[in-house]
Design brief:
424 residues; alpha/beta; Aspartate Aminotransferase, domain 1; Aspartate Aminotransferase, domain 2; 7-stranded mixed sheet; 39% helix; 12% strand; binds pyridoxal-5'-phosphate
């Protein structure tokens, strides 16, 4: 008997919690049940029944070149033949750290980890250890992974689950976490260790920082003696060649990376100037380690991705996102459906409203109107895979062709008619 999406989904629900290993994949916020992936290549993803989709999830941005880029696969294969992990220093991790340092002015040293969550968690510890202060300020709707102290009012999967944080997180773990609205400069005090921000918010849909917001955070941190942390797990090496610093002109004290720099393998990293990073063990008292940190497969993939991400490649990705964004806006609004398609460089979002979205409260109103689910399912029926939740960004990759974009826009016009019919 051959597998079907339904048969595998049935089996997975017996042995995997909710059938998944990360909540958003379970389709709870759009309804229905997910397709089960067989394979992917370039802009396409295929389910176990052989259905083909143009994929705008791309592992939530981890695959910026598109799926299974041939050169990435080749370097991973070569690395695997030489052993998959050693627990000792490698050339690959040196070269990847050098490549990161070369691209991001202000980053002088890096520590590799195995996920974005781990990077942000350790970076918060670093900020506290370095300043000797406890309080962390984060913004509602910004997602920084699933460590206890950062889960409060996270966007993304946390938002999709309708949870404000999580059961099992003690009041003590979040006692020093202050949640502030995005795009408003919070009041800091002498207890503030760090302000952590997504420099362009991409986990509550896409929300652009208003002019002066990031610079205002920089100035307040300087006044209060607090550190500024950019969580660039999505924006790093995507927003621009040099990430958010290049795009905004604002330089934080600590950076967190993930997704893109792993080339589709498990990775995270945090970095900053030498004096701050020297607080991390073994140079300093802040502990961070990991059996698989700097994993040779992940560093090989990451290096190859960064090698391909030339300024020209970034321009090309911008162009792809620009074409997609303009096409979606025209197709959906053409059907008389209120929509906004925010775009910041290659980052793209879609909100079914014509209100301006500047923070999480705004994003929630748009996400809760039910239109995204209707749109999502019509797109999926037409072979276009968007993220199964209204809080996720769209991730066009360098593998998305003009023909892919044209097909997507055409499908969007049909999907928008469904939205108009279902929601008036
Ligand atoms: C995805 C994400 C994380 C968490 O990374 P994981 O690899 O999923 O642990 C942290 N911060 C931001 C901004 C993210 O988008």
């Amino acid at each position: 008997m051959t597998d079907t999406n339904a048969s595998l989904w049935e089996r997975s629900q017996q042995v995997l919690v909710g059938g998944v290993n990360s909540p958003v994949r379970a389709f709870l916020s759009v309804g229905g049940s997910p397709f089960v992936v067989e394979k992917a290549a370039g802009s396409r993803i295929f389910d176990v029944e052989g259905n083909e989709y143009i994929d705008y999830v791309q592992s939530y941005g981890a695959s910026i070149l598109g799926h299974a880029d041939p050169k990435v696969i080749e370097v991973v294969r070569e690395a695997a033949l030489a052993g998959t992990t050693y627990g000792a220093p490698t050339r690959g991790e040196v070269e990847l750290a050098e490549a990161i340092v070369a691209r991001i002015p202000g980053v002088e040293m890096v520590r590799m980890a195995s996920s974005g969550t781990e990077a942000t968690m350790a970076a918060i510890r670093l900020a506290r250890g370095h300043t000797g202060r406890n309080k962390v300020i984060k913004f509602a709707g910004n997602y920084h992974g699933h460590s206890d102290s950062l889960l409060a009012a996270g966007g993304s999967g946390v938002a999709n689950q309708g949870l404000t944080g999580s059961a099992g997180v003690t009041p003590g773990s979040v006692a020093d976490t202050v949640v502030a609205p995005y795009n408003v400069i919070p009041v800091l005090d002498v207890d503030t260790a760090v302000v952590v921000v997504e420099p362009v918010a991409a986990n509550m849909g896409l929300v652009e920082p208003e002019p002066g917001f990031l610079q205002g955070l920089r100035d307040s941190c300087d006044d209060a003696g607090a550190l500024l942390m950019f969580d660039e797990v999505i924006t790093g090496f995507r927003l621009a060649h040099g990430g958010a610093v290049e795009w905004s002109g604002v330089t934080p004290d600590i950076w967190c990376f993930g997704k893109v720099i792993g080339g589709g393998l498990p990775v995270g990293a945090f970095g900053g100037p030498r004096d701050i990073m020297a607080t991390v063990a073994p140079l300093g008292p802040v502990y961070h380690g990991g059996t698989l940190s700097g994993n040779p497969l992940a560093t090989a993939a990451g290096l190859e991705v960064l090698a391909q991400l030339t300024p020209e490649a970034h321009d090309r990705l911008n162009g792809i996102a620009e074409g997609l964004g303009a096409g979606l806006l025209e197709a959906v609004s053409g059907a008389g459906v209120a929509v906004s398609v925010p775009r910041v460089g290659p980052l793209l979002g879609i909100f079914f409203t014509d209100e301006t979205i500047r923070d999480y409260d705004d994003a929630k109103v748009a996400a809760d109107n039910g239109r995204y689910a209707t749109f999502f399912h019509s797109m999926l029926d037409q072979g276009i895979a968007l993220a199964p939740g209204p809080y996720e960004a769209l991730f066009p990759s360098l593998a998305h062709s003009e023909a892919d974009i044209a097909r997507t826009v055409e499908a969007a016009a049909t999907a928008a008619e469904r939205v108009a019919a279902a929601h008036g």
